[in-house]
């Protein structure tokens, strides 16, 4: 009797042995693994090193221009970066030079505009348990070359494409004093002391006010993401038609966690057919409500991405 297995992973990489070291080559299109070597956005090459449990990761655009240079210590279920990481744009210009330890940013990290000019420098402190203090802003320069953060001090103000404006001061690398934000639907005022969030007050368009003492959080399935995957594993039924046609592969799915914790707006970036997509929708529709995301004291809609790997053996 055939066995059918259902697993949930971020990426799947395959080894080919060359000489004394193993090499993995994976192609990506729109953020997903593709087997089409003639139509891809970039390829990833991972090679063994002389140091046990450390791998060399290099990524290249189709014209062989370097995209990423890094070292990793773990490949599954997600890549864990270690040490120096460099990122480049399609012109081969350095856009980021950062440092990792066990997958977390540490030390001095620099980011650059597409023309190679410095944009930001941050200092990451892995030993500080307060998330508000783990990133210290050292240097900030706008696209016109004006430096608004120098040696950790200055005034920040930015308006995004959606019309949301945020402004406030930095002192010794951290938010300090009163910070304000405004959008079409609400405004808020928050108080920071040397980077520590103290309190906030959001005023909605109808005049209703919400006080909060927590800056916010991402949506979460009760028990965490591991429990969500267990739920999927228990409830997803491999369609019989997919079994007969020996379907193997991943379903790349995005959905929105609504303000009430329900799941909506399913989008499939690919289609394996034979009822696999419909079964995923059924399981997600029946999923218990999540703990909704909260930002500035009010629930918000948040987009979430998952991969479901379907395999049979």
Features:
single chain, 313 residues, mainly beta, TolA/TonB C-terminal domain, 19-stranded antiparallel β-sheet, four-stranded antiparallel β-sheet, globular, disordered N terminus
Mean pLDDT: 89
How many β strands by DSSP? 26
Q: Give the distance, in angstroms, between the N- and C-terminal Cα atoms.
A: 10 Å
- The helix content is under 10%
The description of the largest β-sheet is: 19 strands, antiparallel
Could you say which structural class the secondary elements and strand pairing correspond to? mainly beta
**Globular, elongated, flat, extended or rod-shaped: what is the shape?**
globular
The succession of helices and strands, N to C, reads EEEEEEEEEEEEEEEEEEEEEHHEEHEEE
Q: Total helix count?
A: 3
Give the oligomeric state of the chains in this entry, treating copies of one chain as homo and distinct chains as hetero: single chain
Q: Segments where pLDDT lies below 50 for 5+ residues?
A: 1-19
Q: Over the alpha carbons, how many angstroms does the gyration radius reach?
A: 23 Å
How big a fraction of the residues is strand? over 45%
Structure overview:
With 313 residues, the protein is mainly beta. Among the domains are: 1-116, no CATH class; 225-312, TolA/TonB C-terminal domain (2-Layer Sandwich). 8% of the residues lie in helices and 52% in strands. The protein is built from 3 helices and 26 strands. The chain has a 19-stranded antiparallel β-sheet that branches. A 4-stranded antiparallel β-sheet has the order 1-26-22-23, covered by helices on one side. The protein has a 3-stranded antiparallel β-sheet with strand order 21-24-25, with no helix packed on it. A hairpin with a 3-residue loop joins strand 17 and strand 18 (186-193). Mean pLDDT is 89; it is low at 1-19.
